[in-house]
Write a structure and sequence with these properties.
Layout (H helix, E strand, L loop, with lengths): L2 E4 L6 E3 L4 E4 L7 E5 L2 E5 L1 H7 L1 H6 L8 E5 L5 H12 L4 E4 L3 H10 L11 H11 L5 H11 L5 H4 L2 H13 L26 E2 L2 E2 L18 H14 L4 H15 L1 H4 L8 H13 L9 H13 L4 H13 L6 H4 L13 H23 L2 E2 L2 E2 L4 H17 L7 H10 L9 H13 L5 H8 L9 H7 L7 H28 L1 H7 L4 H10 L8 H13 L40 H10 L16
Parallel strand pairs: 3-5, 4-6
Antiparallel strand pairs: 1-7, 2-3, 4-5, 8-9, 10-11
Helix pairs in contact: 3-4, 4-5, 6-8, 8-9, 9-12, 13-14, 14-16, 16-17, 16-18, 17-19, 22-24, 22-25, 22-26
Length: about 600
């Protein structure tokens, strides 16, 4: 820390312990200065020789003792004592902690050059310009002390000088950073100050781009806002570094935010959250989506205002593809029936879809050769996260079905290449809402496309008693269609590859792939598929024997189709009341009876 000593005479100020300061001298005190509850017994001549204000207050004639009351001097009694000692020529030490108070008090007492050459104001200004404002840490300390001396520090431009000094250093090229700074986060070995040598030559140590971030976390929110604004104005620091600085400051001031716990606070905390939101760089990716969602959760709980909330939701919507399901679990405020704020997430997802569609139209014109453009990678990621979020809110018995459906429908049809996640969410909702009506069940299940379910999901769905019968029929139909097509392809592959099979004695890659995809537990071929398999044998012109073996090859594994237990007359529920058209379709599919040895798979969790 920089410091400056003024004066040469010994310090003879004596404090009697009762807030009384007396100058130990042979001369009797002829002026008493009262500042608050503290009294200073001084002499006229030293004060009049340096302070123009005392020249106006103290008469030069007369020997009587004069008492002066001063109530509004910046810095109070301590700052006045520094000025008084300077008047007596006593040794005074100035540093980053007391220099602002002394400068403001000297201005109050009018200790200018016009009164005496080399007066206190001049000496302090030289000290500030040559030492304090050239020091990184001293500038931060000084800025922190200016708030206690407003409006004097503001009017004297001390605040602006501090801010400019800090912002200029933070914006400097890292190769020119030669001063000390605090940096306790994980760093590279060279950033830790290790003396790494290679072939006896000391390597150059590198300064991280965010070297200044931690030192600024000690500032109050008003000073911090001014510094970050000045850094932004200079335009020399990357936006992601500024975002990292704001994130570090927020976690320092609101540690509960980083722990994703309930954030409590008063008007001061609310004002801080609003300021932090306004300081965030507008560029996408300057801060993580997870941090934005934590801010949104805090502002929502503390009711920081609609404008702040909407700004955060807009920013989150632009980079929602970075979010996880846990990030989106924002609890509702008091008085809401649901556990999580579904409406807020719905608004965020709608903002993302709007931005994604806008970008797609900008780059691709929306359609290519009359076909709808394929969904972006970001859209597919968000759809997967939304399905995971739906599965979480489905566990809440108070989640309205209309909100569930609306959120699911917000994502476009082609944004889900696989509907397993959506099926899991629907199954969870049906499990937690057993009293759901038949029409609501059908509407809920119509959200998913049975053709986009994986074989495992299909195997689960055909034995899921919670699903409407019509949905199960659709799953079975598409599963059998897919199995039939796959069997045909397998048979053709065996015929074409019989020559190579006879040479190598190994099965084809096509058969291996088929076994990996279609061998699903608790499923068996229907009669329709068996007939199709016989036709495939004839198609191969006798190259496959009646026992299903390929000449010179191995036995192909049979693909399995879904089995479903049909409810009997005594069963109640959705399926017992299904219409005759569903039953007719089931008869056409020739569903096999459930074998007692097979067990039904548990419902999706």
């Amino acid at each position: 820390m920089k410091f400056m000593k003024l004066g040469s005479n010994p310090d003879t100020f004596q404090d009697d312990g009762n807030e009384v300061s007396i100058v130990a001298t042979e001369l009797v005190s002829d002026v008493t200065v009262r500042i608050g509850t503290t009294k200073f017994y001084l002499h006229k001549f030293p004060l009049l020789s340096k302070c123009a204000r005392f020249q106006k207050m103290i008469p030069t004639t007369g020997d009587e003792n004069i008492e002066i009351h001063i109530h509004d001097i910046p810095g109070g009694a301590k700052a006045f004592e520094i000025c008084a000692k300077f008047c007596y020529g006593m040794i005074v030490t100035l540093n980053a902690y007391n220099v602002i108070a002394a400068r403001c008090a000297a201005e109050y007492l009018e200790m200018h050059e016009t009164v005496d050459k080399g007066n206190l104001i001049y000496k302090i200004d030289v000290f500030l310009g040559s030492s304090i404002f050239r020091s990184w840490k001293d500038s931060i300390i000084v800025l922190g002390t200016t708030k206690a001396h407003l409006p004097w520090s503001e009017d004297l431009k001390l605040v602006s000088h501090c801010i400019d000094s800090i912002a200029s250093k933070a914006s400097s090229d890292t190769s020119k950073v030669e001063w000390s700074y605090s940096y306790n986060r994980k760093k590279l070995p060279t950033e830790n100050g290790l003396d790494l040598e290679w072939n006896g030559v000391k390597k150059q140590q590198f300064v991280p781009h965010d070297w200044w971030v931690e030192d600024l976390t000690d500032l109050d929110i008003d000073s911090y806002k001014q510094v970050i604004t000045a850094i932004k104005t200079k335009g020399m620091v990357r936006k992601d570094v500024i975002g990292e600085a704001i994130k570090a400051y927020t976690y320092k001031k609101l540690p509960s935010l980083s722990k994703v716990s309930m954030v409590h606070g008063d008007a001061k905390v609310r004002a801080m959250l609003v300021t932090i939101t306004c300081l965030l760089p507008s560029e996408k990716g300057s801060v993580s989506c997870s941090f934005l969602l934590k801010l949104l959760k805090a502002t929502n709980l503390l009711k920081c205002g609609e404008l702040c909330r909407k700004e955060l939701m807009k920013r989150i919507g632009r980079q929602l593809d970075e979010a996880s399901v846990s990030d989106l679990l924002i609890p509702t405020v008091d008085g809401e029936a649901t556990v999580y704020d579904i409406d807020m997430i719905l608004s965020i997802v709608e903002e993302f879809v709007r931005q994604d569609n806008k970008n797609a139209q900008k780059h691709n014109g929306g359609e290519v050769d009359g076909h709808v453009q394929a969904p972006s990678a970001s859209m597919i990621k968000v759809a997967k996260v939304v399905d995971g979020y739906l599965a979480e809110v489905a566990k809440d018995p108070n989640t309205p079905i209309l909100k569930f459906i609306h959120l699911a429908e917000t994502m476009s049809v082609n944004s889900r290449p696989v509907h397993d996640g959506l099926y899991r969410a629907i199954d969870m909702y049906l499990k937690e809402h057993p009293s759901l009506g038949k029409s609501d069940k059908k509407r809920l299940c119509s959200l998913m496309d049975c053709k986009k379910l994986s074989p495992d999901a299909c195997a689960h769905a055909v034995q899921n008693e919670r699903l409407p019968l019509r949905t199960v029929v659709q799953v079975l139909y598409h599963e059998q269609t897919r199995a039939s097509a796959a069997v045909t392809i397998r048979a053709d592959s065996i015929c074409v590859g019989s020559y190579e099979s006879s040479r190598s004695g190994a099965t084809t890659n096509t058969e291996d792939e088929w076994d990996g995809v279609m061998a699903v537990e608790d499923l068996s071929l229907s009669k329709t598929t068996t007939k199709l398999d016989d036709a495939d044998k004839n198609h191969c012109n006798g190259k496959i024997s009646t026992n299903g073996k390929a000449k010179g090859g191995t036995t192909p594994k049979k693909a399995a189709l879904g089995k479903m237990t049909m409810p009997g007359k005594g069963q109640s529920g959705e399926r017992s009341s299904s219409d005759s058209s569903d039953s007719a379709i089931l008869q056409k599919l020739e569903l096999p009876k459930r074998t007692p040895s097979r067990s039904t798979k548990p419902a999706a969790a």
